[in-house]
Amino acid sequence: MSDHDVLCRATGLVKEFSTRDSGTFGRARRFRAVDDVSLEIRKGETLALVGESGSGKSTTARLVARLMDVTAGTVEFEGRDVTRLNGRALHGFRGDVQVIFQDPFSSLNPRHTVERLVTAPLMYQKRPIPGGARAFTRELMERVGLDPDHSGRFPAQFSGGQAQRIGIARALAVGPKLIICDEAVSALDVSVQAQVINLLRDLQREEGFGYLFIAHDLAVVRQIATRVAVMSQGRIVESGARDQVFDDPQDEYTRTLLAAVPRINPEWDARRRRNEAERAARLAADDARLGA
Fold first, then answer.
1. What single DSSP character describes residue 128?
2. 51 and 140: one domain?
3. What is the pLDDT of residue 289?
4. How many other CB atoms are there within 10 angstroms of residue 248's CB atom?
């Protein structure tokens, strides 16, 4: 793999927080939530960062997205060090990297219509809205499977799955190169999870952006990940291709996580892999015909 294939590279990330012991004269302490984490996200792929609650995966995502400053380490995006960006340069980075959060209702302003929510990133960055706000919003709503006639509605008028699609549309608005999904489907029903995951995969194929997919549900991860990195106590303990990590885990912590996942019938899993291979072959054939 050449450096040209790497979209985002994090090296030696450390994040410490100040805490204080209980009591009036409690002693100040430093808690290290992320400890020497390094990872790479390649163009067009999905790197899943998995681990139990408190493992440091969401903090790592926020460091990569520059929503939080690092204590130590560097973040590079398309070969450029973005660790200390601020002001206008940071605004530019925000256009390249977007985040979809776990709870769509807490991340969407309840007083704003879908149109205002979807166009907000462009307005924040003082960028023109192609075709006007209404037409632009309607087009994005169609792309994520929402009724464009509902662009004047408010978040509370949608289901959880629909609200998450609004969050996806908002992320797409600025044409990002990397989307960070921070537990983006964990709050949804299983059937809705599958729909959103299929949508994310289709959008990735169309646009070619990369995903950093934060999750604790390994069954979900297996459906979307290209590669997997496993975190425990602030560190990455294992990483590799998805099937390599799932089928031949090397770290005891990874084996423990996988043991807690409901067993899949081997015939079903073999059928899933065949279907994925056939789907990839069809997509490659379609791309070849379009390029001819």
1. -
2. yes
3. 72
4. 9
Q: Which helix (H) or strand (E) holds 262?
A: none
Is 280 found in the same domain as 225? Answer: no
Confidence at residue 62, expressed as pLDDT on a 0 to 100 scale: 95
Sign of the Cα pseudo-torsion (34, 4, 66, 203, in order)? negative
- Contact indicator for 232, 52 with CB cutoff of 8 Å: yes
Q: Tell me if the pTM is above 0.85.
A: no
Contact assessment for residue 88 and residue 126, using Cβ atoms and an 8 Å cutoff: no
What is the DSSP code (8-state) at residue 149? G
- Order of strands across the sheet that contains 28-42: 28-42, 6-20, 72-77, 80-81
**For residues 37-58, average pLDDT:** 95
* Pair (19, 127) in one structural domain: yes
The model's confidence at residue 267, banded by pLDDT at 50, 70 and 90, is: low
Closest CA to 197 of 226, 220, 217, 163: 220
| Tokens 């921070």 sit on residue | 182
Phi (first) and psi of residue 165, to 5 degrees: -65, -30
Q: Does residue 169 share a domain with residue 274?
A: no
Q: What type of residue is 168?
A: I
Q: Check residue 287 and give its pLDDT.
A: 67
Range of the domain at 285: 267-291
Token pair listed for 144: 């994520």
By the 10 Å C-beta count (0-12 exposed, 13-18 middle, 19+ buried), 88 is classed as exposed
